[in-house]
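Before drawing any conclusions, I needed to go through one protein's amino acid sequence and its backbone structure tokens, quoted below without any editing.
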Amino acid sequence: MMRVATVLLLMLSTALHAESLKIGYINIDHVVSSSPQFIQANQIVIKEFQPQEEQLLLLGQEIQLLADTFNKNSKALSQSERKSEIQKIANLERQLKQQARTLKKQLKLKNELELGKIQDLINTVIKEVAEEEKFDLILYQEVAFASKKVNITPIISQKIRQRFK
């Protein structure tokens, strides 16, 4: 019994003498989505890939027009003409799907590249704020609760905006 009391007394004494930790929390989704760098990167990606998206739309319209024309005129076509038209439409559909997959991959890679640059910038700013403000711990993953006292999202967002060129 005496041992337990001694251990508890030591733990209490240690806790009383321990320095308090300075903890900060960042809503990283808000920081990223509201940063001018993210907004600009989105605009650049949209502008870069718009011609390819328009080509896909045109190809889709062409396929739809061919299918509509085929459906109207299929009874007047010979068996070999019907087969040829069906093959033509099927080939265009495969081409559309392949181009859409390629565009999706390119878009994903570009988005990951741009987001990586923004994440690097955010991490740099977080480290600078941590050092300047003498934080012991800064969290930006999901947490169950963070009070306004530890929420440093506005500080990080402001510094990110200041770095926008």
Q: What stands out?
A: The chain has five helices and two strands. The mean pLDDT is 89. Residues 19-162 form a domain with the Protein Binding, DinI Protein; Chain A fold (CATH 3.30.910.20).
